[in-house]
Amino acid sequence: MKSKIGEGMLVFCIVVFIHFPTIVYGTQTQEVKTEGMISFTGTYEPIGAPEPKPPVHVVKPPSDGSSSLEKTFPQTNMITNTWWKSIGLSLLIIVVCWWGKALKNIYELKESRNEI
């Protein structure tokens, strides 16, 4: 009985952690002095004119058609579609239930053979 409760709690925890991910957004910025190296994303606005000067007309590199909007990397604060996660989780639950019933039937068959 305890193993069934433990298995049920394990499945419940997996479902909760996979199906309901925590989405966090940072809004506060703060200056921190450190001796290490920090990388950042954003726009850099230099003080003064750059040396050497950049070209006046920026030419876009030619596209060979291999890149498209569907093949982009995930961006910061990007919200993904949860339908695929829900379908996958449902399929996983169905397979685990089916596998558990198959193991139970095999166990009962072995028990009935041992009783004879």
In short:
Keywords: Membrane, Transmembrane, Transmembrane helix. Helix content is 44%, strand content 0%.
Characteristic terms for this protein:
mainly alpha, 0% strand
Count of individual beta strands: 0
Largest sheet: none
Approximately how much helix is present in the residues? 40-55%
Beta fraction: under 5%
Could you characterize what this model shows?
The chain has 116 residues and is mainly α. It has a domain at 85-116. The chain is 44% helix and 0% strand. The mean pLDDT is 77. Residues 51-71 are annotated as: Disordered.
List the helices and strands and how they pair.
Blueprint: H1 2-19, H2 83-115
Transmembrane segments: 83-103
Organism: Enterococcus casseliflavus ATCC 12755
Protein name: LPXTG-motif cell wall anchor domain protein
